[in-house]
Amino acid sequence: MKPLQELSFPEELRYVESHEWVRVENGVARIGITDYAQDQLGDVVFVELPAAGKTLARGAAFGSVESVKAVSELYMPLSGRVVEANPALDSSPELVNRSPYGEGWMIRVEPSDPAELAGLLSAAEYRERLKG
Amino acid sequence: MNPLQAATGLVFEEPLLWERGRNGRTGFSMPRRDVEETPLPQELSVEPPDLPELSEVDLVRHYVRLSQWNVAVDTAMYPLGSCTMKYNPKTNERQAALPGFALAHPLLPESLCQGALELIAALECLLAEITGLDAVTLQPGAGAQGELAGMLIFHAYHRRRGRVRSKILVPDTAHGTNPASAALCGYTAVPVASGGRGILEPQAVAALMDEQTAGIMLTNPNTLGLFEEHVAEIARIVHEKGGLVYGDGANMNAVLGRVDMGRIGVDVLHLNLHKTFSTPHGGGGPGAGPLCVKRELEPFLPVPRVVHREGRFAWSEDFPLSIGKLQAFWGNFGVLVRAYSYILSMGAANLEQASRLAVLNANYLRVGLREHYAPAHDRPCMHECVFSDARQRPLGVTTLDIAKRLMDYGFHPPTVYFPLVVPGALMIEPTETESKEMLDLFLAAMAAIAREAREDPERLRTAPTRCLRRRLDEVAAARKPTLTGRPPSAP
């Protein structure tokens, strides 16, 4: 596992303490897990994601990620309806390790309460929590 | 003392059965045909399955060689935390092989299997006495099935009282199967965080326990190897809100004869006969996960149950509130015979002494290891102790490397990366059956590995080096498993 200073947390993303990130593009939130989360998990071997159309509340489990070490739940950083799950992760779960903020994204969600966005952490705040 | 127990001997490579086989070779003779030859009807005729063709000696060597690649409790210390890999005395095998037990057909009439039925009834009594609970079913085929039965009983109990509940509290130091068993029964598992001392705090339970919650699933001692000191208080909080307390007895080996589970407030508890009561395990079964309950919950136990009337033992299905049947027949009977043999051959005093020694051995390792590895909680433990790779990680050495290197020294690795509350966990359970000399060898091996981590970390990262197979590619195995003996593309 890498030391904290070697992990990357892009400034333009928003974060939650359960180690998911959010990027809002044209009103749709793209969601994945952070560099810290993928590093802690180790090699990801399976990702289970919800079907499009599912509506989930903030904090609800939307799927799970399995590594050689453990299975972990994935939690909604905000409430909304799932528009799309990343189809590439089915056959290439390693994308989560290789590119957690890019090709390894997990779901796209139509937020139902845009006000929730304001409650998410900035990169600096998230990094601060990891130190804690 | 040289901690290197493993020596390189004559270990054989072994091909797949299809590579060993030759067309037309066979390991058995068909009995002489005693009917007229008849052609197979067209509609029953299909492409024959791709079975390897082998002689008997080919087949025997194949499996014996594969078995020699294995490590077992009969060959080496097996400190696999949470699994209680104690030595299984051979007398248990001898009793289980008695023809009256081994050859009994499950559909024998009761009059012809009184001994087997009596053994079931007697073992139920012994387990009730050992746990301090009132009634027992031996039906569950493993711990997780015991848990499921327990959850079904929770549900039946609440439904009977006219108030179905939807949630179960599960501490983060409980066994991993607990939330799964609760979920399988339709409950939502609500995690409860353990406190700073590695045990559950009553306030944390009080804050979450409500009238929608069916109860709590506790593992005591918990998966950090620590005794849940507040269990009585926690049980009181849960009972006050009308809930029940489930005890996961997987770690019972620490407290035989020391803790009365009934008196500390546990309502339902499963035991793992294959852990605490010394029946063989590790191969995926068969195990046995008897469930013990308080008198109030007895009507819900699975059927059929053995009853004793007019001097005879009999099966009875006459328990209208029962959750029903869990098995096609009577549970894993051979396992029950072994556990019964173990309990009787040990006796009460020795069972208690076994727990005392299991705790002593774990603490001996805990104190011996803390010089080299970071303890998860530096305080006396029960039957197992948990360390982490916190001191080795800065050297680029992880728990996995330490576990793999331990194989070179001739030990089965401990449980790794569990419990999840300890990052990089190494969970070590020596059990009572290892001698002080063996524990010292283990400590010497672990000390040598800690030294290697500082001086030659690459050696750990490439371990094991003395095993027939080196570091296996676990990622490829998980992502692209080959699940057939011969891949379809092979000729």
For the structure shown, list the relevant keywords.
heterodimer, A: 132 residues, alpha+beta, 6-stranded antiparallel beta sheet, 3-stranded antiparallel beta sheet, 4 helices, 33% strand, globular, B: 491 residues, Aspartate Aminotransferase, domain 2, 2 domains, 7-stranded mixed beta sheet, 4-stranded antiparallel beta sheet
Description:
- The complex is a heterodimer of chains A (about 130) and B (about 500).
- In chain A, about 20% of the residues lie in helices and about 35% in strands.
- With about 130 residues, chain A is of the alpha+beta class.
- Chain A has a single domain, classed as RNA polymerase II/Efflux pump adaptor protein, barrel-sandwich hybrid domain (OB fold (Dihydrolipoamide Acetyltransferase, E2P)).
- The longest helix of chain A has 9 residues, at about 125-130.
- Chain A is globular, with a radius of gyration of 14 Å.
- Chain B has about 500 residues and is an alpha/beta fold.
- Chain B folds into two domains: about 90-345, 3-Layer(aba) Sandwich (Aspartate Aminotransferase, domain 2), CATH 3.40.640.10; about 350-475, Aspartate Aminotransferase, domain 1, CATH 3.90.1150.10.
- Chain B is about 35% helix and about 10% strand.
- In chain B, the strands form three sheets. In chain B, strands 1-7-6-5-4-2-3 form a seven-stranded mixed β-sheet, with helices on both faces. A four-stranded antiparallel β-sheet of chain B has the order 10-11-13-12, covered by helices on one side.
- The longest helix of chain B is centred in the last third of the chain and has 37 residues, at about 335-370.
- The interface of A and B includes residues 46 and 70 of A.
Distance between the termini of chain A: 17 Å
Instruction: Count up the domains of chain A.
Output: 1
Largest interface: A-B, 11 and 10 residues
Q: What is the strand tally of chain A?
A: 9
The number of domains of chain B is: 2
Largest β-sheet summary of chain B: 7 strands, mixed
Helix content of chain A: 10-25%
CATH architecture of the largest domain in chain B: 3-Layer(aba) Sandwich
Tell me the quaternary state.
heterodimer
Class inferred from helices and paired strands of chain B: alpha/beta
CATH superfamily descriptor of chain A: RNA polymerase II/Efflux pump adaptor protein, barrel-sandwich hybrid domain
| Alpha carbon gyration radius of chain B | 25 Å
Low-confidence stretches of chain A: none
The CATH topology of chain A is given as OB fold (Dihydrolipoamide Acetyltransferase, E2P)
CATH superfamily assignment of the largest domain in chain B? Type I PLP-dependent aspartate aminotransferase-like (Major domain)
CATH class of the largest domain in chain B: Alpha Beta
Structural class of chain A: alpha+beta
Residues in helices of chain B, as a percent range:
25-40%
What is the helix/strand order of chain B? HHHHHEHEHEHEHEEHEEEHEEHEEHHH
Largest sheet: spatial strand order of chain A: 1-2-3-9-8-5
